[in-house]
Amino acid sequence: IVVEARQLVGRGAAGEIADWINANGGQARAGGYGNAVWIKTLEGTMTAEPSDYIIKGVQGEFYPCKPDIFEATYGVV
């Protein structure tokens, strides 16, 4: 399965990722001194923290994923 993902790293990344989610049918907001993103998911609101990956699933849903789990599960295409 091919998914689109972005990693929350770097200054301003939280705002950029929240904008990406909101522009693609999701709901999110940046906060926590610009270092976190709150994402509305199918399971409720989840927080993406620095280094986490944010995945756009096959049905257009968004959710955070810890780096170790992401790297063990997905490969670069």
Task: Report on this structure.
By secondary structure, the chain is an alpha+beta fold. The chain has helices spanning 13-23, 67-73, and strands at 4-7, 28-31, 36-41, 44-48, 53-56, 62-65. The strands form 2 sheets. A 3-stranded antiparallel β-sheet has the order 1-5-6. A 3-stranded antiparallel β-sheet has the order 2-3-4, with helices on one face. The model has no long low-confidence stretch (mean pLDDT 93).
Based on the model shown, name its key terms.
23% helix; alpha+beta; 77 residues; globular; 3-stranded antiparallel β-sheet
The helix-strand sequence is: EHEEEEEH
Please mark out the parts with pLDDT under 50 across 5 or more consecutive residues, or reply none. none
Helix content: 10-25%
Write down how many β-strands occur, each being a DSSP E stretch of 2 or more residues. Answer: 6
Cα-based radius of gyration, to the nearest Å = 11 Å
How would you describe the oligomerization state of the chains in this entry? single chain
Describe the secondary structure blueprint for this structure.
Elements: E1 4-7, H1 13-23, E2 28-31, E3 36-41, E4 44-48, E5 53-56, E6 62-65, H2 67-73
Antiparallel strand pairs: 1-5, 2-3, 3-4, 5-6
